[in-house]
Known about the structure:
Layout: H1 18-30, H2 32-40, H3 44-51, H4 58-79, E1 119-123, E2 130-131, H5 133-137, E3 142-150, E4 154-164, H6 165-171, E5 180-185, E6 190-194, H7 195-198, E7 204-209, E8 212-213, E9 223-225, E10 238-244
Parallel strand pairs: 1-10
Antiparallel strand pairs: 1-2, 3-4, 4-7, 5-6, 5-10, 7-8, 7-9
Helix pairs in contact: 3-4
The structure holds the ligand Nc1nc2c(c(=O)[nH]1)N[C@H]1C(S)=C(S)[C@@H](COP(=O)(O)O)O[C@H]1N2 and molybdenum atom.
Amino acid sequence: MNSPKRHRIPDPALPLDAKSIIKDAQNELRLPQRRLLGKRLLTLGGLMLLSGCDLTNDKSVNTMLQKVSSFNDDAQALLFDPRKLAPTYPESMITRPFPFNAYYDIDQVPDVGALNYRLELNGLVKGKRIWTLDQLHALPQESQVTRHICIEGWSAIGKWGGVRFADFLLLAGADTTAKYVAFHCADNYWTSIDMPTALHPQTLLTLTYDGSILPAKYGFPMKLRIPTKLGYKNPKHIVAIRLTNAFPGGYWENQGYNWFGGS
Length: 263
Ligand SMILES: Nc1nc2c(c(=O)[nH]1)N[C@H]1C(S)=C(S)[C@@H](COP(=O)(O)O)O[C@H]1N2
Ligand SMILES: [Mo]
């Protein structure tokens, strides 16, 4: 994939649905543990105390920022409630057209063939490691209307259908005591998530968008939809899934985006 994008200015033409975003944010802030975290991270002095860095030169500032980011990962993982559901919306609120985003432009979307496609499961897995699309479509399917939030400054509501990821992992004999689940994509994108998020009831291995087979631009043949996470933690065009205890990182995460990436 050429012409990687580093930064993009939000498109002002996109309907941002400001009211619902503000409502979601207010609900978030109502949680007492969020307020506590906000207060604790508010001052530079507090950051120095937390990170044990004196912030007198660029190197120590970088070290501090790295420490705060991994502190955030740990704190977010602790605060993540596996039973708390992301908001769902009526179909009338679906954003049309749903935006496309990737680290390249839309004319470079990978063309993954359906017939030869195989999903590979590797790492800490005891059961079935190779899945065809037909086999995935034969599993029980469900659908959800949720909000996708991109760190670049837009959000949109969409409807995705597919297999509950927890069901799939159990069926495939995945070792759910593994720490991480990593995703490798046909466009060489990759990301990874923690096991509680993988097993969250709203985390879906999606095969459809808005009732039809997932179009190429939205991730054919499959996108992992995680409504409790930001857009960059929702991999499209997945070709391999690895269960592992070794920290896998991710395409954007390795360039500084927070690894936990909760919304
Ligand atoms: N394979 C792959 N997955 C990806 C990306 C990508 O570049 N490649 N970009 C991520 C980002 S930053 C966003 S916001 C969403 C966009 O998904 P959409 O095109 O369905 O809106 O895909 C995520 N998953
Ligand atoms: Mo994104």
